[in-house]
Give the backbone structure.
Amino acid sequence: MPHRVERTDPDGVDFGWVMQVTFVATIVAGAPLVAALSTTTTLPTWGARAAFAVRVGALVWFVTALLAYAYARRAADTSTPET
């Protein structure tokens, strides 16, 4: 028999949601962005290509994480009644 999936109701920001959204959005937005930016840069070796993808991907990941956190924080602040 499969184990029951647990649910949570976090107070404040749901960091699991933030991590999942960051992961998916980084792949969806980052891959085309890295591909587009790589057309304007000379990348003669596979090492240069990998380093370029890591540098640009890290920046995309960081910006995406900040935006996802800000969105979740704003959503948590508006849904929590003030006392």
The two ends are 44 Å apart (CA to CA). Residues 13 and 75 are 8 Å apart (CA to CA). The first helix runs from residue 15 to 38.
